[in-house]
Every structure is written in C-alpha cells, then in structure tokens.
Design a protein that fits this description.
- With 397 residues, the protein is of the alpha/beta class.
- The chain has two domains: 4-58 and 307-396, Alpha-Beta Complex (Aspartate Aminotransferase, domain 1); 60-305, Type I PLP-dependent aspartate aminotransferase-like (Major domain) (Aspartate Aminotransferase, domain 2).
- The protein contains 14 helices and 15 strands.
- The chain has helices spanning 4-14, 47-50, 59-69, 84-95, 106-125, 146-150, 155-158, 176-182, 208-218, 271-274, 290-305, 308-324, 350-358, 381-396; strands at residues 28-30, 33-35, 41-44, 99-103, 133-137, 168-171, 187-192, 222-226, 250-253, 265-269, 331-337, 340-345, 361-362, 364-366, 370-373.
- The protein has a seven-stranded mixed sheet, sandwiched between helices. Strands 1-2-3-13 form a four-stranded mixed sheet. It has a four-stranded antiparallel sheet with strand order 11-12-15-14, with helices on one face.
- The mean pLDDT is 97.
- The structure holds pyridoxal-5'-phosphate (PLP).
- Pyridoxal-5'-phosphate is lined by residues 49, 105-107, 110, 141-143, 193, 197-198, 226, 228-229, 254.
Length: 397
C-alpha cells in the first residue's frame, strides 16, 4: 500500500520543510536493520542520533512498553505512578547523583538544567536574580528552543528568531584560558558536551574538561555536562565525562534513555542543586509518565546487564581501526570514542552519504564535512565487516 515515492510526496506536500531527509522510508526495523516499503534492506548507522543504541525494537523494551500499555500510560505528575520511583532509583545509581528530574525531550532537559543553574545561583550562590550568567561553547548543540538557540553559534539555528534570551557567554570549545576569563561573580554554570556530536564529533583536548571542573570548583560554578548524545555507553563509558576523568555537577540525559521507543529525558544532580525546585516552579505534563518509565527502566537494565560500555568500546575500536584502513586522499581524520565516530573529509559529504545509501548503508553528515558513524551498540563484528566492505567501495572509488 505504501511506496517510497508516495510517502515522500505526501510528507513534502503537507509537512513544514524544517528537515531535508535522505530519501529512504523506514517501514520496518529490527536491530541494526531497516526495510523500506519495497523490501530493500539497509543498515542503520545513525541510530536516530544515538537514540537507538539498543537497536530497533529491542524485544525486552518492546515487551516492557506493551505490558505497561495494558496497565496505565499517563497519570500526569498531579498523581503518582508505580514506576517513577524505580526509574529515579536506577538513574540515580547509574549517574551517582541522588536526585532526578524527568522530562521528555533533550531540549526540555537542557532547559531544566538552565533553570536549575540560574535558580541555584540566586538561592545558593547569592547572585542577584537577573544577573546570572551561563558559559557555553562555540559549536555546541543543545536543542532547538528559543533559549537554547540563544546560546548557539550556528547562524542557521538562530536567524529570524530574535529577540534571543540573554545571559549566555561563549568561549571556544576546549579553550581553558577563555573559560577562565569568562567567569565572573555572577557565573552560575559552565555548560558543555564532553564530545560535540552535532558540531562534528569534536573531541576537546583530553585535559580540558578536568581543568574546567577545577576552575568551576574554585569559582563556585556548576559544571553541566550535556550527555544527551554521548551518554549511556555510546562512547565506551557509561557517560563520556568519564573518558576525561570528570564527574560533572549536573548531567543532562535523553535520547538512548528512551530505548528507541519513547522520548524520555532527565536531569541528574545532587539535592543541593535540584532542591532549588519546589512545587509549582517547573514541570511537564508527560514528564515521568509510566510508559516512559517502563521503557527507560528496561533500557537501563539492558545496558547494565549486557555490558553496553564494553560492547561499545570493543566494537567501536574495531570499527574505527577498519575505517582508518580506508584510503582516500580527501579524508582529513577518523576520530571519536566507542561507537561515536566521525570521518572528516575536506569537502561536503552529502553526495557520499547518498552513495552509501545506494549500497545499503545509512549514514548522515554532521556539520557538512563529517560522516557520522554511530550504529546501534548491539552491532556485531560481522555486521561491521558487512558495512566496511561497502563503505570502502564507495569511499575508495
Ligand atoms: C539531540 C541533542 C539534544 C536535543 O535533544 P532533543 O530530544 O532533540 O530535544 C540536546 N543536546 C545534545 C548534545 C543532543 O545531541
């Protein structure tokens, strides 16, 4: 009944054009594989920007969702649900923080962290309300709300959306001197991605995050790690901050937390920070809903039981080494950690990604010149070999 052509035509006709998707329709998916309406099979090397770390439709997560669908799906936070406490407990254990605030999308969790930091600055640090400053990094990606794009350096994200939210200062990613200079008595927080995902899989100098944490401690500034994309084993550690030996004050989490089934996001921090919220000060109708909790609990259990950190490290090292065997004079660098890998070229890679699609490998560009390879963490060595054979053919020709 559905055809690729028909589906795309209808979407283009009635949908706002805020995306430019590759011309592939997913009609079925399982594990690392997706299938279009005509029965063509592709390997998913994007994993919905790391939200499909468990692979498509992980049976245990799908089962948890089905079981919960038969019980209760939404209570709002005006009432309790059976699973919220358990969700908190598991996420607290994973992050080592003692308090959790649940939301739905990554952007909402970022907004929550910004609010927490601003209010903490007033209530705990003693900054005058309205004077709080938050330091961010050039090249960041934290989402799409007005306040979040107000701290972006990307003109395409910002144009025509003014007036923008004040109170942000920007430094070069990885530049500790600029961070030092940017901090004042009004600084509430320094917000960073441990590795910039949308920015092009950019890894900062290995000592940057640690030095940033020290500076933050010296000046009573919160270090907020946006781990929406890098979190939950993607980089070979449960959180990418660990790669740099840092425990941030605040974690922003999302994407893979929802197990590829349902949007679930959260902020994790200790109570000296999250206690700034009292009833009425923040919320979300769907945040912490029982269906999301069921899915997230299953997603976290699987990551721990199946040792996703080890899987991502082992498969990621193998994949990265095999990608480095590929010869093409236009390759600038292959970099990343675990299964968050960027292959940078000295030219736009959109055409290459289209060619990869034609041989059955779905990868997407990030920042125009970088092909992002971020397959589901459950990918096998054989599946990586299958992909490498095709990637090699396309890139070496
Ligand atoms: C994707 C992403 C977000 C935004 O998440 P949404 O669920 O799309 O709102 C925030 N931060 C980072 C680092 C991301 O990669």
């Amino acid at each position: 009944m559905f055809t690729t052509k028909g589906v795309i035509e209808k979407a283009e006709k009635f949908g706002a054009h805020n995306y430019h998707p590759t011309e592939v329709v997913f009609s079925k998916a399982q594990g690392v594989w997706v299938e279009d309406p005509e029965g063509n099979k592709y390997m998913d090397m994007l994993s919905a920007y790391s939200a499909i770390s468990h692979g498509h439709r992980h049976p245990k997560i799908v089962q948890a969702a089905k079981d919960q669908l038969d019980k209760v799906t939404l209570t709002s936070r005006a009432f309790h649900n059976e699973l919220l406490g358990e969700f908190y407990e598991k996420l607290a254990a994973l992050t080592g923080k003692n308090m959790i605030l649940p939301m739905n999308t990554g952007a909402e969790a970022v907004e929550t962290a910004l609010k927490a930091a601003r209010r903490w600055a007033v209530d705990v640090k003693g900054v005058e309300d309205g004077k709080q400053e938050i330091v961010v990094c050039r090249g960041n990606f934290h989402g799409r709300t007005i306040s979040i794009i107000s701290m972006s350096s990307e003109p395409a994200y910002r144009r025509g959306y003014g007036p923008l939210t004040p109170g942000f200062k920007m430094i070069d990613y990885g530049n500790i001197d600029q961070l030092k200079e940017s901090i004042t008595e009004n600084t509430a927080a320094f917000l960073m991605e441990p590795i910039q995902g949308e920015g092009g899989i950019i890894v900062p100098p290995m000592n940057f995050m640690k030095e940033a944490k020290q500076l933050c401690e010296e000046h009573n500034v919160l270090l907020i790690a946006d781990e929406v994309q890098t979190g939950f084993a993607r980089t070979g550690k449960m959180f990418a901050s660990e790669l740099f030996g840092v425990e941030p004050d605040v974690y922003i989490l999302g994407k893979a937390l929802g197990g590829g089934v349902f949007p679930v996001s959260a902020v994790a921090a200790n109570s000296d920070i999250l206690n700034v919220f009292n009833p009425g000060s923040h919320g979300s109708t769907f945040g912490g809903n029982p269906l999301g909790c069921a899915v997230a609990i299953a997603a976290m259990d699987i990551m721990v039981e199946d040792k996703y950190t080890e899987m991502a490290k082992e498969k990621g090292d193998y994949f990265m080494n095999r990608l480095r065997e590929i010869k093409n004079p236009n390759i600038v660098e292959v970099r990343g950690f675990g299964l968050l890998i960027g292959m940078e070229f000295n030219h736009n890679v959109e055409a290459l990604c289209d060619e990869l699609k034609d041989v059955g490998v779905l990868a997407h560009d990030t920042h125009e010149t970088v092909i992002r390879f971020a397959p589901p963490i459950i990918i096998t060595k054989e599946e990586i070999d299958w992909a490498i054979e095709r990637i090699k053919k396309v890139i070496e020709k």
